[in-house]
Amino acid sequence: MSPAIRLEPLTPADGPYFYELGSDPQVARYMRFSPLTDPAQGDELAQSYTTGGNLAWRIVDAVSGRSAGVAALKLGDHEDTRRSVSLFLARDAWGQGYGAAAVRALQAQALELGFSTLAGFIVEENTASRRLAEKCGFTLEEILHFPHIKPGLCLYGWRA
Fold first, then answer.
1. Which Pfam families does the record cross-reference, listed alphabetically (predicted)?
2. May I ask the CATH architecture of the domain 5-115?
3. CB pairs under 8 A, 24+ apart, for 35-42?
4. End-to-end CA distance of the chain, in Å?
């Protein structure tokens, strides 16, 4: 059973929280960024996640008030009708259901915003995130191959 969560909007001023999460090499392992080494990188990441059509939230345990990670709906290249899901959790929140709860909250948020399709890009070897996507109704559409991502990048899709 997933924990009760709430999503609290993040802003460009939340760079320190992005830095806290993103500086953990295990958290950043499968992200599109290397582990953060300077607080200014957290500011840049917060800016990219919260502006230009992107929306991001802090995942908060509704009972304890503990922050568990970041959930976002990001605008992709040439995508007017769907958003991409981005999720990264604090290491101490792994395996406790926060990911599933956050993805379900993002699905509901997307529908409220008028988006009936979502995409998820997951590094092929990130089996935990792939299982999470499938558990939440996403289906594998394609495995993309790039020279800098080994072995591949899985494109998952969700339709309401």
1. Acetyltransf_3 (PF13302)
2. 3-Layer(aba) Sandwich (3.40)
3. 39/15, 40/15, 42/15, 42/16, 42/17, 42/18
4. 22
